[in-house]
Amino acid sequence: MLDVCRQRAEKEGVASRCVFHEGYLNSLPDIEPYDAATCFLVSQFILEESERAKFFSEIAKKLKPSGVLASADLASDIESPEYDVLLHAWMSMMSAADISLEAIERMRNAYAIDVGVLPPAKVASIIESGGFELPVQFFSSGVDSCLAVKTSTEQCRSKCAVATLGAKAHAETHRTLPTLRVHSS
What residues pair up with 69 in beta bridges, in sequence order? Predict the structure, then answer.
């Protein structure tokens, strides 16, 4: 992921203003807060709602007051008939990609046990409790739900800088964020 960020920064002519960091969220240096963060397919692996809210709170603390979070996770009401339709469609697409039926069944079982698939409104509520205001869905694809939110001024009180935080999606490394920092001068 960082290699792609570096290549993109070079292509855009901003690489000389960038510092790249890969590590845990809490290992980011205590420097100026960031303007934005991304969290793609990460928080769904945090099964406890209070820990998930804490994760978002940690991100909010790294952002300036007007900072924006773009977050995407698997989100659906798993008790609804629509979820079965979506899951079936997604599994059908996976089988069309030459993934074995056994692997698809393992994924389906993992979704039921190891992934915190919640209704989009519940995910938005958790993000909001972590220090963000008014989560707004900007994209949805199957069971993916993407939200854009602004940090709460109560959670963040700092000055500017520009950055993008990226995220790795794995349950045990859910707090690992590669980052791209672009200096504003």
Answer: 37, 149
Please say whether the beta carbons of 64 and 160 come within 8 A: yes
Which tokens in the block code for residue 89? 């469609």
Any idea which residue has 């672009």 for tokens? Answer: 182
Q: What does pTM read for this prediction?
A: 0.71
Task: Tell me the fold of 2-76+117-182.
Answer: Rossmann fold (3.40.50)
Q: Give domain limits for the chain.
A: 2-76+117-182, 81-114
Partner residues linked to 39 by β-bridges? 71
The residue whose two tokens read 């700092």 is 158
pLDDT digits (tens, 9 = 90+) for 81-132: 888 888 778 778 877 888 888 887 888 788 878 999 899 889 999 999 999 9
Angle at 168 between CA 153 and CA 41, to 5 degrees: 70
